Amino acid sequence: MPSDFQRKFSDQLQEGLRALAARRQHRTLTEISGVNLCSNDYLGLSQSAALRDAVVAAVENSSRVGSTGSRLLSGHASTWDDLENEFADFAGTEAALYFGSGYAANIGLLTSLAGRNDIIFSDALNHASLIDGIRLSGAQKHIYPHVDLNALESALRQEHAHRGRKLIVTETVFSMDGDVAPLPEILALADRYGAGVILDEAHATAVHGPGGRGTSANYRDTIIGHDANNGHDANNGHDANNSHDANNNNIVAVVHTCSKALASAGAFICGSAALRGHLINHARSFLFTTALPPYMAAQVSAALHLAQGMDAERAALQQNSRQLNAALRAQGWDTGKSSTQIIPIIVGGNEDALAAADFLQHEGFASRAIRPPTVLEGKARLRFSLTAAIAQTDLSRLAESLRLWRSSQQHPVAVGAAANS
Question: What is the CATH number of domain 49-308?
């Protein structure tokens, strides 16, 4: 027989679940089928035979299939140093440090760089991992309306005399809206008011920027080479005065995840060698986490090599995104300010979002309704996450299916794209 505590505890949990169901916010785990519109596998690498072969070879050649401990104890291997140097070259930074997930990277970064005497300026639509990292840091915070530069500048001006560290934190490609942060303007404000900038490139890694190096790559001078002191050549054939300055602007850290377009796991925090050393000594989500098995480094490395040669897939993905967005807007759907492979259809109510997703599932599309608290109240939506593997014929059929669903409804749904164009 359950104890009184267990009985009361179970009743409370069930009551909470019933409340979620009443608000149409209850979630369950189900395997998807059909044309996948939920995937972050933007380049289709999760189906790559070459990547699969690289993983098999890495497992076969690895001395162990478990890491056995944190990297500061028994979990380190030279393959991680090699991978971090390789990724730093890719990202155009002096150094990089690998974490087990993007969530762990953002938590570790923000809690180790900011404290109660510091101030963080955060976009209102930043990912939950950034929000949680800011909360856990104990720093003062200003949450500015989404990509509202006037509000950001007002907050920076208000805190201009603050003696603590000031950090602006933003995603580059926003995960729920598919729009892109105005980095030139944000960097200009950071320089003007003496703030550092932290960028989360999760949905841009291997997809946007030159060679898939992320949107921030447009604001770095060059890729860092290798020098004799730490395996990096500081000049690498370039003018030492201007080619390898890892601090050529106020970007102090860039987070790249491996679990999306790179079809692997984990994330890198990229920045200066000093930042890497600081994180190794202070980031709790690095210090107290068991390392991933060494063969995972080979998977990430193989994925990175493959992704850098996929310019055609990147171009096709962007073309498909533009065509679908245009088709949906022509029908009157509200796709917000999306300009990337992430295209939301903002329908407003939970019931409408669930009904639309259910209709699409019956039409052979794997689609999920995104509801509060993942998005704001009244902003329930379908979120189409396109990949290079989706055929244009399927995208045309998707647009037609949405047209049919809305025409079958007895009340108009989310006609307002023109206002957001």
Answer: 3.40.640.10
SS3 content of the chain, % helix, strand, coil (to 5): 45, 15, 40
Enter the pTM of the model.
0.88
Tell me what the mean pLDDT of segment 98-105 comes to: 98
Residues of the chain with CATH 3.90.1150.10: 311-420
The residue ranges of DSSP E strands in 186-229, in sequence order, are 196-200, 226-227
Whether the CB-CB separation of 65 and 291 falls below 8 Å is answered with no
pLDDT digits (tens, 9 = 90+) for 55-83: 999 999 988 999 999 999 999 999 999 99
Which of 336, 339, 317 minimizes the C-alpha distance to 40? 317
Q: Is the dihedral of CA 321, 325, 326, 328 positive or negative?
A: positive
Residue range(s) occupied by CATH 3.40.640.10 in the chain: 49-308
CA nearest to 250, candidates 367, 117, 156: 156
What pLDDT is stored for residue 158 in this prediction?
Answer: 97
Cis-peptide into 372, omega within 30 deg: no
Residue 195 has pLDDT above 60, yes or no: yes
**pLDDT score for 111:** 98
Distance of CA 381 to the CA centre of its chain: 19
Largest CA distance in the chain: 76
Cβ contact 337:299 at 8 Å:
no
Nearest of 176, 198, 178, 203 to residue 121 by alpha carbon: 198
CA distance 370 to 382: 6
Per DSSP (E only), the strands in 132-287 are: 140-144, 166-171, 196-200, 226-227, 232, 251-257, 267-271
Say which residues have a Cβ less than 8 Å from residue 62's Cβ, sequence separation at least 6: 293, 294, 295, 298
Closest to 348 in 3D by CA, of 338, 356, 359 = 356
Beta-bridge mates of residue 133: none
Domain 311-420 belongs to what topology? Aspartate Aminotransferase, domain 1 (3.90.1150)
Extract the tokens encoding 5: 């505590």
* Strands of the sheet with 342-348, listed across from one edge: 342-348, 380-385, 369-370
- Of 16-20, 121-125, 220-224, 309-313, which range is least confident? 220-224
Instruction: Annotate 113-132 with DSSP letters as a single string.
Output: H--TT-EEEEETT--HHHHH
Is 60 exceeded by the pLDDT of residue 380? Answer: yes
